[in-house]
Design a protein that fits this description.
By secondary structure, the protein is mostly helical. The protein contains ten helices and no strands. It has two domains: 66 residues, Arc Repressor Mutant, subunit A (Orthogonal Bundle), CATH 1.10.10.60; 120 residues, Tetracycline Repressor, domain 2. The chain starts with a helix and ends in a 9-residue tail after the last helix.
C-alpha cells in the first residue's frame, strides 16, 4: 500500500473513532454539557485534532448524525418502491432501522434543541429532510388511498406512526422486538392508508 493510501485509511479510522466517541459523550453528558476536550479524551486524540476534523462542536454533531443516517437512509428517493404496499413496507423497515440504531440520537437532539439554538437549527434542517421522505411515500400511495383519506392526512399518519416516542414505548418499555415492531407498523400503515383493493407486494 502506498504512503498516501495508508494515510487516508488512518485519517478515516481517526474520523470514525472521534465520531463514535462524540456520540458516547454527547449521549452520556448531554450536548450542552459535553466538551470537545472530553470527546478528544474519549477518542484518544488531541483536542486540535478534533477541531481540525470538524471545526466546531456543531460540526462534530452533524458528523455524528450523518454517521447514524448512513445506516438507514438510502441515497435518493428512487429507493422508494413505486408499488404502494411495497412503499409502506419500505417506510416501516426504514423507520425500524432508524430508531433501532439511533434512539439515543433522537433523544439527544430533542433535549439539546430546547436550550441550544444551533442544535434547534440542525434539528429543524433534519426534520425538513424527513418531511421530504414522508411526502415522497405519500405521493406513491396517493392513487390507492383509503376512501375519505386525503394526501395530507396520509402524510400526517406516515409521520406520526414513525415517531421515536412510539418505538421507545413499544420496543424499550413494552418489550417488543424490532422485528415485531416493523411488522406491526407495516400492517397498521397498510390497513389505515390503503384501499382494500390495493395490490400487496410479495
Amino acid at each position: 500500500m502506498s504512503t498516501s493510501g495508508l494515510r487516508q485509511r488512518q485519517a478515516a479510522a481517526t474520523r470514525r473513532r472521534v465520531t463514535r466517541a462524540a456520540r458516547r459523550v454527547f449521549t452520556a453528558r448531554g450536548y450542552s454539557a459535553a466538551t470537545i476536550a472530553e470527546v478528544a479524551a474519549a477518542a484518544g486524540v488531541a483536542v486540535p485534532t478534533v477541531y481540525k476534523l470538524y471545526r466546531s462542536k456543531r460540526g462534530l454533531l452533524a458528523a455524528v448524525i450523518e454517521g447514524w443516517r448512513s445506516e438507514f437512509v438510502p441515497a435518493g428517493f428512487e429507493a422508494v418502491p413505486a408499488d404502494p404496499p411495497a412503499a409502506l413496507a419500505f417506510w416501516a423497515k426504514t423507520t425500524r432501522r432508524q430508531w433501532q440504531h439511533g434512539l439515543d440520537i433522537a433523544a439527544l437532539l430533542t433535549a439539546a434543541a430546547v436550550s441550544e439554538p444551533e442544535v434547534a437549527e440542525e434539528l429543524s434542517a433534519r426534520l425538513k429532510v424527513r418531511d421530504a421522505w414522508v411526502r415522497r411515500v405519500a405521493e406513491i400511495i396517493e392513487p390507492n388511498l383509503a376512501p375519505g383519506l386525503t394526501p395530507a392526512q396520509a402524510a400526517a399518519l406516515l409521520s406520526a406512526l414513525a415517531l421515536p416516542e412510539l418505538y421507545r414505548e413499544l420496543v424499550i418499555v413494552r418489550g417488543w422486538t424490532p422485528d415485531v415492531y416493523q411488522a406491526w407498523l407495516e400492517r397498521t400503515l397498510t390497513s389505515q392508508l390503503l384501499a382494500s383493493k390495493a395490490p400487496r407486494h410479495k
